[in-house]
Every structure is written in C-alpha cells, then in structure tokens.
Design a protein that fits this description.
mainly beta, globular, 4 strands, two-stranded antiparallel ribbon
Length: 55
C-alpha cells in the first residue's frame, strides 16, 4: 500500500530527500508515484503538517 500526499501539503520539500526510491515529485502539492513507493514511511515521519498518509 503506497503513501499519498494530501492537499494539506505546503510544498516545503522536507519529504523528497527522505525517499529512498525517488518516488516523490515536486509540485503543489507534492505527489508520490504509487508504483515506485516501497511503503517505508520515511516521508510521513518528516512531514511537518502531517499531509502524508497510507492510501
């Protein structure tokens, strides 16, 4: 089950460098490619506004 980024995303960029498989793309909101996501949760752990959750 992949993670997803909600509209609460403030595009701060803290999640992108945490992704070990480069599944996160910049934007407003940022997006996670579900085909690349390995469900590690590293991105959710660093999100300051809790905008990242499991699908």
């Amino acid at each position: 089950m992949a993670y997803k980024i909600s509209d609460a995303c403030v595009a701060c960029g803290s999640c992108k460098p945490e992704c070990p498989v480069d599944a996160i793309s910049e934007g407003n909101p940022y997006t996670i490619d579900p085909d690349k996501c390995v469900d590690c949760g590293a991105c959710a752990a660093v999100c300051p506004v809790n905008a990242i959750s499991q699908e």
